[in-house]
Amino acid sequence: MKIVHLGSSDLAHANGGVASAVFGYIVFQAKLKHEILLFTTGDVQIEQGVNVQFFPYLKLLGSKFQWSLPLFKALQNEPNVQIIHNHGLWRFPNIYPGFINKKKAKIICSPHGVFSPWALNYSALKKKITLFFLGQRRMLEAVDMFHATCEEEYLQIRSQKLLQPVMVVANGVDIPEIQEYTKNKEKRRVVFLGRIHPIKGLDFLLQSWCRVAADKKEWELCIVGPNIVEDYAESLATFLKEQRINNVRFLGSINGLEKQKLLAESDYLVLTSHSENFAMVVAEALAHALPVIVTEGVPWEKLNSKGCGWWVPRKSNSFDAALTKAIGLTREESSEMGALGREWVKQDFSVESVAIRLVLGYEWICKGGEKPEFVKVE
């Protein structure tokens, strides 16, 4: 099949989890001998086998909307395309599929969490303008099939009165070789990986850390990720200064081997988001044999039953209790939890299985036949 994956600068390595997941299955689709193109306005570097085409954009109505006439023309004129797989919403590149010749290709849309109540309420006016005046609704109505990464996202799609088929396929993760790094014998670490953005709930996390671990000199909390909202980052720094917390560090963005080393040298991953679509970083941490502590806005409820972490209500007493329990375990006990998580991810979340299921969904929407079990039409 000839497949065009489409995304704005949101689909860039600096944005972490979603980009990593998408690039993973794009590359494997190419290895399955499909012709894969990636049209984007983002800064993307991806391994051979994928034809990446970068398009400049005008800062029309501000830089976030990313108007790109060259991208639209390329999408309209690319011959013999069978699938256009759009990633995300609210940018002009995510609107364009609704305005091309409908006979050209089947349109797949991965919202990547944008229909969660919290996400819809954030910058709500801009999103309503995009939806009703700039063509986003038209694009959504033109979609042939949606892709949700979990049952919760499927229900969120249906809440928008979008009745097309939905394939529910979790994101996949590469299973790395476990690297041998020497952990600091005197210092243990909890790490947050993600954007510095209000949706991630870092204020909630820092307040809990202040209550539970601020006086634990043997522990540190490392906040790792790009600063997306300047005022929010400043408010976090001000809180730490006012509370005189000295065991929290902001490390900026890291990727690749540097990220692998960080995970290998850490004891836990923590995520306290208001809302997450899949939370790729959880799968990455588990693949590195790292137990995780998350709140219920993060759709990883099986952490408890799998014995590899904590999935708790987003309430102070619940999260404080989980954090207290975690930092009270020995390294041997937390390592045993991490090993269980790694085995779970190996079985259920490999990149290969995700890429294959997505292609099966593409083939079904193009050719018909027996519906894959992961496609919902109700």
Description of the molecule:
The chain is built from 15 helices and 14 strands. It is of the alpha/beta class and 378 residues long. Strands 3-2-1-4-5-6-7-14 form an 8-stranded mixed sheet, with helices on both faces. The protein has a 6-stranded parallel sheet with strand order 10-9-8-11-12-13, sandwiched between helices. The mean pLDDT is 88.
Beta-sheet strand percentage?
Answer: 15-25%
Radius of gyration: 21 Å
Shape: globular
Largest sheet: 8 strands, mixed
Averaged pLDDT:
88
Please write the string of helix (H) and strand (E) elements. Answer: EHEEHEHEHHHEHEEHEHEHEHEHEHHHE
What is the count of helical runs?
15
List the keywords.
378 residues; six-stranded parallel beta sheet; globular
Secondary structure layout plus pairing:
Elements: E1 2-7, H1 17-31, E2 35-40, E3 50-54, H2 69-77, E4 83-87, H3 92-95, E5 106-110, H4 117-121, H5 124-132, H6 136-142, E6 145-148, H7 151-159, E7 166-168, E8 188-193, H8 202-212, E9 219-224, H9 230-243, E10 248-252, H10 256-264, E11 268-271, H11 280-287, E12 292-295, H12 303-306, E13 309-312, H13 316-327, H14 331-348, H15 351-367, E14 375-376
Parallel strand pairs: 1-2, 1-4, 2-3, 4-5, 5-6, 6-7, 8-9, 8-11, 9-10, 11-12, 12-13
Antiparallel strand pairs: 7-14
Helix pairs in contact: 1-15, 8-9, 8-13, 11-14
Offer a concise description of the structure.
The chain has 15 helices and 14 strands. With 378 residues, the protein is α/β, with parallel strands linked by helices.
